[in-house]
Design brief:
Two copies of one chain form a homodimer. By secondary structure, chain A is α+β, with helices and mostly antiparallel strands. Chain A has one domain: Gcn5-related N-acetyltransferase (GNAT) (Aminopeptidase, 3-Layer(aba) Sandwich), CATH 3.40.630.30. In chain A, about 30% of the residues lie in helices and about 35% in strands. In chain A, strands 3-4-5-6-7-9-8 form a seven-stranded mixed beta sheet, sandwiched between helices. Chain A has a two-stranded antiparallel sheet with strand order 1-2. In chain A, helix 2 packs antiparallel against helix 3. The longest helix of chain A is centred in the N-terminal third of the chain and has 17 residues. Chain A is globular. The relative contact order of chain A is 0.12.
């Protein structure tokens, strides 16, 4: 079923050139997204089993409490096939700070601009919700070097480092991006 | 009922000198603690209505999910009367970092060493659970100047400042205290 979806997501034009279908954005969260998020996190090649479980828990929290959970999701799809997702939301107790809790795309999609498009969509939606600062936490581990470079290219700036946060020698690195105000909330 | 408890919590000795009962520590959380936490937060004179609600939500989360919530509570009592509490717990995804999510004591108890005793008990218990770093987040607001000084006196060090985190001009200040290992986990 999923394989079929993925096959249909690629359109061969007359010249035989592979052309991608346009991306579809989806905000609604359904129980099936526990599986999508699990799959994408695993296919990203980035996360430990414990971290994958944490991502799935965000979905469960959202399913249980709705928007009151504080977790917004955004799924990037070709047809029904999820290629990547982001989880973000307002930080309770702050006026307009938002957190990009999680973002993952399939490893094979990397380098195709999907992560950049996903981040841009999250920023756009955060701005519309009134968010003015978007935080992204990541690790100082070598494995996350591409992640840190990714955020820097997107205009995030390094705000703080919490030494040995994850474990001795592995620090928490906090990035933040200031979002411009909307015309109605300058 | 509560007034009666509070009256009994003070013992007048022969010389008429007011002497406090020994503190009792309680870890178990019951539905009645929603009210205790609400009351202590209000009586602390420190928190906005929204913040008080956030503290009560921690209790609700703990009641709903037990220890799996990640929230440990510690109540400081005279008899059955709660004088202060702390909420702390392991930070998911880290090896041994813990968070002191919330701490509050009645305003009239301030300056009597209750906060210091509560913090020391939290540190002791965190260490026994294997925690090696205890984080405390607070605000840069003038109102929280005593809080920041309190942490500094207790040996917490300033780790990072996230500018404009709470709102423009109000920063997040992150403190951390390194806890010594237990004899069995050096």
């Amino acid at each position: 079923m999923e394989k079929a979806d993925r096959r249909f997501s690629v359109v061969r034009n007359r010249g035989g050139i592979v052309r991608e279908q346009p991306l579809v954005w989806r905000e609604e969260v359904s129980p099936g997204d526990k599986e999508s998020v699990h799959r994408i996190c695993e296919l990203s090649g980035f996360f430990s089993a414990e971290e994958v479980d944490m991502a799935v828990e965000l979905v469960e929290e959202r399913l249980a409490k709705g928007v009151a959970s504080g977790y917004h999701f955004l799924f990037a799809q070709h047809g029904d096939t999820v290629l990547g997702f982001a989880c973000y939301g307002p930080i309770a107790g702050t006026e307009s700070s938002w957190d990009l809790y999680w973002m993952a795309v399939e490893e094979k999609r990397r380098g195709q601009g999907l992560g950049r498009k996903l981040a841009a969509e999250v920023e756009r939606r955060t701005r519309l919700f009134g968010g003015r600062r978007l935080y992204a936490w990541t690790s100082s581990r070598d494995q996350y070097h591409p992640t840190r470079k990714f955020y820097e290219r997107l205009g995030y700036s390094h705000e703080a480092t919490l030494r040995d946060y994850y474990k001795p020698g592995e620090h928490l690195v906090i990035y933040v991006k200031q979002l411009p105000g909307t015309p109605h909330s300058p």
